Amino acid sequence: MATDSTKDHSCENSALLAEVIYRFAFDAAHRPLPRDAQAARLRLEAGNRAFAELLVQLGSSKAKALSIDIDPRDIGLSPRGSAAPVQQPFAAVVGCADARVPVELIFSEGPNDLFVVRTAGNGIGDDVMGSLSYATSHLGDSLKSIVVLGHSGCGAVSATVDVYLQPAKYMNIVPLKDLRCIVDRTLVIVQLAATWLERAHGIEVIRQPGYRTALIEVAIALNAAFTAYNIRTSLGLTGNEAIDVVYGIYLLEQRLVWSPRETDRNWFGLASAPVDANEFVVLCDLAVSCPRVTALLVA
């Protein structure tokens, strides 16, 4: 990936140049697959930080580059000619269909590393669950983690928040069955987010200038966490140490993955899915009272 601009207002005299390089060699050592779920999570988090740091450095005098080593066999190449690769991803990612969230790129991964399923609002219907069931059943030798990845400013969640705040808007989507299905599925999460915001900040929170934006972002976090919980329980992965289920929110502005965590003040990274209702309640408390949401309320 290369970007070149002369219209950047923060550094008008500097060309912006960043390169993402996928490289391979037949005789070079290749990145080994993560040995367990913890190693898979750490690799994804490190890859995301590398991607974000690359773009933070834009505007400096020297071009910056991010090199991602890939196994040539993963793109069908071998010293003896072409051959279909064996599918062996180390993580499955349930992400939003939003084009601004290129999953492999933001985690600094290459081909055959991630098993990606994308839907609007990262919802889980039968087709998504069927895909994940296939992954856990047939790719279990390499698969160590399932990641639910939401993102800031999600259009599906934003549309649902607007229906919640102005119920008359629901009439506009009544004839649109497919879109209505997405809103219906997400509405309970938005209602939960609104209830928790009022508990934390009082009934007058709805009068805060940034209430709509804060409600959207809280709902995005709760939606990702609840989806991760749903996947864990539906696939029978509770207590499974071989495959972990985690979630995170990709912040479009910072290009970092973020998730509320009770045990860590640095919330950049992935978090384990809640295992029960008590953990989900703790997550709700964290999400509505965190500095990011508090700042959005008054913005």
From TrEMBL:
User: What are the UniProt keywords, alphabetically?
Assistant: Lyase, Metal-binding, Zinc
Q: Reaction catalysed by this chain?
A: hydrogencarbonate + H(+) = CO2 + H2O
UniProt-listed SUPFAM superfamilies:
beta-carbonic anhydrase, cab
Q: Give the source's domain of life in one word.
A: Bacteria
- Cofactors named for this entry: Zn(2+)
Q: How is the cofactor bound?
A: Binds 1 zinc ion per subunit.
- Which parts of the sequence bind Zn(2+)? C96, D98, H151, C154
Which InterPro entries does UniProt cross-reference here? Carbonic_anhydrase, Carbonic_anhydrase_sf
Enzyme Commission identifier(s): 4.2.1.1
Family matches, as PANTHER family: CARBONIC ANHYDRASE
The family classification in the record reads: Belongs to the beta-class carbonic anhydrase family.
Q: What is this protein called?
A: carbonic anhydrase
Q: Which organism is it from?
A: Rhizobium chutanense
